[in-house]
Amino acid sequence: MIVAFSVTPLGVGEDVGEYVADAVRVVRESGLPNRTDAMFTSVEGEWDEVMAVVRRAVAVVEERAPRVSLVLKADIRPGVTDGLTSKMETVERHLSA
């Protein structure tokens, strides 16, 4: 499964990059395949391991922010691995055609 999620601290002002970096650090240290862009962090793995990483990422932001917003989208597709890469390869192949 691939989960794309965004963790946003609320009540801490406009500059939230430091808080977001804490959450992304949790994802990167998980060892699961992941990718971060300007809007979301995507992480790939089995349900329990991915959701545990999301929970830890939220928790690290909760430690410093009075309120946290979580947006999550999941692609639940048993038996598929390396979806983060293969999905983009398919799109790139179509773009170059």
Automatic annotation (TrEMBL):
It comes from the Bacteria. SUPFAM superfamilies: MTH1187/YkoF-like (SSF89957). Residues 3-92 form the Thiamine-binding protein domain. InterPro entries: MTH1187/YkoF-like (IPR029756), Thiamine_BP (IPR002767), UPF0045_domain (IPR051614). It holds the Pfam family Thiamine_BP. One of its GO terms (cellular component) is cytosol. Belongs to the UPF0045 family. This is MTH1187 family thiamine-binding protein. The lineage of its organism: Bacteria, Bacillati, Actinomycetota, Actinomycetes, Kitasatosporales.
